């Protein structure tokens, strides 16, 4: 099965200033970009903020190709959103919405590209620990995120492989030839993941 990225960039080892930033500061940066997407009302400010994030991404050493791969799956959706908003609310509003979405994606990609997955999950556990008093399990929460980050690229890769195989047989317009193999592969992957978790004593509620 081929590996496929999905929206967020994979970790790139490095020694840049962004790599060395404390994890909490990176979390704050992503949070600030998320809040900015609601507060920025001028498309020019959104473009400026996006430019800054892109420059930070390039300065981290992750590379322009990796940045493009991180946002490429989102481009068709943004095209539809932008066209609809342009029709409903005009060009400036459409540009602001699209740019703010890209801002959040690039900020999250900067986090994942400069932070090893184990450190990222440790940070999630630390952030979720105060909610333990309400019955939350930080370790299970981090495990869920880890499985999600692994599963989405796998499923995307399964779909791409099945699509290429169907195209080679002239069946690219046959929904059954596309959906059924991906469904079977996904179910098998979920079963194997569940069995692996059960073998390690994970995934079952504690008594």
UniProtKB/TrEMBL annotation:
Keyword Transmembrane among record annotations: yes
Subcellular location: Membrane
Organism this protein belongs to: Arthrobacter globiformis (strain ATCC 8010 / DSM 20124 / JCM 1332 / NBRC 12137 / NCIMB 8907 / NRRL B-2979 / 168)
Membrane topology: Multi-pass membrane protein
Highest taxon above the source species: Bacteria
GO CC terms in record: plasma membrane
Record key words, sorted: Membrane, Transmembrane, Transmembrane helix
Protein name (record): Putative ABC transporter permease protein
Transmembrane segments: 23-41, 48-68, 97-121, 141-160
Pfam families: CbiQ
